Amino acid sequence: MALRPGNYIDGAWEAGTGSGDGITVLDSASATVVETLRPAGADQLERAVAAARRAQREWSAVPVPERVAFLRRLADRLAAREDELAAVMSKEVGSTLAFSRSVQVGLSIATIRGTADALAELPLDERVDNVTVVREPVGVVGAITPWNYPIYQVVAKLAPALAAGCAIVVKPSQVAPLSSVLLFEEIEALGLPAGTANLLTGTGRVIGEALVAHPDVDMISFTGSTEAGARIAATAAATVKRVALELGGKSASVVLDDADVARSVRGTLGSCFSNGGQTCSALTRLVVPRSLQTEVEAEIRAAVAEVVVGDPSDPRTVVGPMASAEQRETVNSYIELGLSEGARLLAGGISDDPGGRSGGGGYYVTPTVLTDVKSGMRVAQEEIFGPVLVVIPVDDTEEAVEVANDSEYGLSGAVWSGDEDRAVAVARRIRTGQVAVNGGAFSARAPFGGVKKSGNGRELGRYGLEEYFEYKAIRL
Ligand code: NAD
């Protein structure tokens, strides 16, 4: 594909100056090369941070209504380029085209619009007693993002950072950087002051670490694995910068004994298998009362039998390929591990030819459900990041809550019940950043983020915007 080079620095596109191998982006459905980019070099990181530092002063003086208008125009421009963006992310990640359109692009647009609305409504000055509390931009933000929702995760940081009057240096995942190049083409077209938004394509170890350690970067907003997040927090501590972390998850879906079984099973599988299971907030542990286990298992078998694994561009496909060969290996090794730990295979399993697709060379796996899983098993504790659901039977609601909270993660969750009040009471006892009651829909204006090893800080809407301000108290 004809594409700009992977770096946008101080208002100009540049090929990377970094040494070592190029960054090769593969088509998940065919394992063929889509594009190879030269990685950014240390000199480019220096120039990007210096440009951001300089531009931040100019950008923060731009009046709020103009910043709101910039965000709204960016959202409109992405909407106009929906097909192209969706096709690129379908290749980078393996998302089905339909999902790429509705979620990868759709949620990105909703996130930018939600941020614009939040900025329009937020008072930048507030009065407390004799004090004027002023919201001031944090300064220069470094954003580091993963591959599974490549532009959504960038705009969940870029939109509020720019809204608050910060400048930003974005380092997207080296697995899926192409959609960010398209995003930055649209940012370029809007004519921000040069240096306000910069893009560096590089690896975590080189560009990511240098961005985190840089003394002129005031804040790092990171989304990715818990392991990398912990390392980033430690590195950032040396310069005492602000750090926001959106990390992994192992979210529980708790079915109460009065729940609609079909609805709860199908809702859970829909979440678990969405984006091929490559979703941090996916519901991956189904906690069911033993009294309903047989009925739940029958429903799971029927529902999984309907799941079409295949080419992401085929509209019938529900689960496309994994993003990479590494991801496919991880998923298959966890299925094997679960069986060796004593889980029973309810649906799926390891196949030589998932969905009849492996001849095509893509990174396909078979959507799988393991049952009779105990909460202490590794398959119930570790993030698999693929279409694998574990079913954990429990005796009662107390045990269900205990199992739901028996995780080092705390990102999301679900409760299903015929009685909404009862479900909400259980939702309040689950220690996570979000809980869906009876399939309650995701909102791009409500706070998203985790507790425990799922991270800290919140993204989206007013809550995400607040992360990019410092408060100054002027005593009068
Ligand atoms: P990853 O942690 O390997 O990489 C994420 C990003 O960090 C990449 O851009 C990478 O280059 C960079 N990076 C890696 N090590 C770094 C370091 N030491 N210093 C600086 N940068 C570094 O994660 P991934 O494999 O790309 O994504 C999958 C993970 O992301 C999963 O664990 C998933 O749960 C998590 N995730 C979390 C959320 C959330 O909002 N909580 C959303 C999506 C994904």
Automatic annotation (TrEMBL):
<dbReference type="InterPro" id="IPR029510">
    <property type="entry name" value="Ald_DH_CS_GLU"/>
</dbReference>
<feature type="domain" description="Aldehyde dehydrogenase">
    <location>
        <begin position="21"/>
        <end position="474"/>
    </location>
</feature>
<dbReference type="InterPro" id="IPR016162">
    <property type="entry name" value="Ald_DH_N"/>
</dbReference>
<dbReference type="InterPro" id="IPR016161">
    <property type="entry name" value="Ald_DH/histidinol_DH"/>
</dbReference>
<feature type="active site">
    <location>
        <position position="246"/>
    </location>
</feature>
<dbReference type="InterPro" id="IPR016160">
    <property type="entry name" value="Ald_DH_CS_CYS"/>
</dbReference>
<dbReference type="Pfam" id="PF00171">
    <property type="entry name" value="Aldedh"/>
</dbReference>
<comment type="similarity">
    <text>Belongs to the aldehyde dehydrogenase family.</text>
</comment>
<keyword id="KW-0560">Oxidoreductase</keyword>
<protein>
    <recommendedName>
        <fullName>aldehyde dehydrogenase (NAD(+))</fullName>
        <ecNumber>1.2.1.3</ecNumber>
    </recommendedName>
</protein>
<dbReference type="InterPro" id="IPR016163">
    <property type="entry name" value="Ald_DH_C"/>
</dbReference>
<dbReference type="InterPro" id="IPR015590">
    <property type="entry name" value="Aldehyde_DH_dom"/>
</dbReference>
